[in-house]
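Annex B. Sample input.
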Amino acid sequence: MLKLLFLTLFLTLSLFGEKILYTNYETIPKRVIKGEIFTVTLKSLSTRKEFNDIEYTFFNGYGIELLDEVPLREERGRFFYDTFHMLVTQSQAKLPDVNATLILSVDPQPIENNQTQTVLEEPSAFEEPSVLEESQEKIVTTIFGEKLNVITLNPRKDFSSVIANSFALQEYKTTSYDKSHNIVIFVATATNADLKAIHFNNVYKQGIESLKESYEEAKVTYYVVIDKHLEAFRFSYFNLLKNDYETITIPIVVDDDSVSTQSDLKPRDQSHDTIKIYIALGVVGILLLIALLRRRFIYAVIALLPLGYVLYLSIPQQKICIKKGSKIYLLPVRNATVFETTPQEYHLQKEGSVQHFIKVKLQNDKIGWVKNEDTCTY
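Annex B, continued. Sample output.
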């Protein structure tokens, strides 16, 4: 029906003028939510069959951010449907006005010797062009945008500021950050979402470690530093398809492994090493005594295990020198968050290492990462 009306309008106007390009807003959402990514489609029809392209210039809009430089184009017969993504940034918004420009190519024409030569640019004194340079003709038509019905959410306390068609956790990990906090690192994907906006209330620290933006599937790696007493980290996002909040839950299970990954933040605790050594030595003594009394040397062999543990605990942890002005990172990844800069040369306890980074224990007992090139000879 709309196609028939559009063609009727086109034919009617053609009787009174020579308009070449017809464009209008084909799809406009009835309502949008502040923070939502939505799409609008421009429908265009040209009376010229041969042309190079249709380009668009947006102006006089407010409360929205245009996210596409190049539209997603679909051709249906002689109609062109160009879809753009936009982000609602304010509680009041208006679609921009649009200049739609039809780019027509001008075929090069031969130059007659007795004709006056006309070219787009003055030719070089060393050239004798035999044809006109190819030029372009531009036909512009303007359409006007209308105000949008914008709804502002009344967010829950646990709202993450994410508005999406879907949001899903891919993986997560929790490790100790300091005596009072744990750090939770998670990877999540979302569709039709602005993941740059993710933010949590009532957390000690937070930040984006990596972000891949895409309308089809965005992906974020995020960290939050939370109180140790929490047994789960819960937050919500607004599901556009269900028109309601959905809760995401990350159970807090502190990982004590020592795998050299970006979330390997737990230091070796040496505070009870002396007691552990005495206990292990006591076990060694008991096993050796049993071996002598019973003349069973298998107990002496078993005693080698706690003896090896004693030797391990007796090895002092290595200290390294950190240059003045070095950056201490929260995670050993590129573009990680810097939470401290050394005001002077530091000599810190080395807790581990991964490629290009060394894990150190700071003087306030927090764990951080420093780049290899920021260390000096101890």
